[in-house]
Amino acid sequence: MDWTLFFIFLAACGAAAATGAMFQPGEWYKSLNKPDWTPPDWVFPVTWTVLYLFIAFSGARIALIDGNAYAMGFFAVQIALNTLWTPVFFGLRRMRAGLVIIVCLWLAVAATTVSFWQLDWLSGLLFVPYLVWVTIATALNYSVWRRNPPAAAEA
What we know:
The protein is an all-alpha fold.
């Protein structure tokens, strides 16, 4: 493991995580009608911490492999979309726009998972929990958008 590369990828994850610190759910989100299966608030930072460590570790491994161009391209897209979702959903309170972004994020994470798996099975495997989490987050985004029409109205 090239630890310098790991910390570079971890920094990219940290930039994405910073949007969560800058745009916290707050009272607006707490007041929304959410499905019964919504994870408790404490689950989100714990889950994201583990996922970002997996994402950084996987990225650092793939970065060293020849023929990684598509994998690195998909990685860049998914981390950019990951960074974008929080300010759009929580900052701007644009649930529909958030849904569009998170569906694109899901596609990018799926493509990253497949491309990583083709190069290094461990890196691909470590992306699977991220794909599962983004699947849950997409369903939650959709459900919250549908359950809160007045709050979901976007100009």
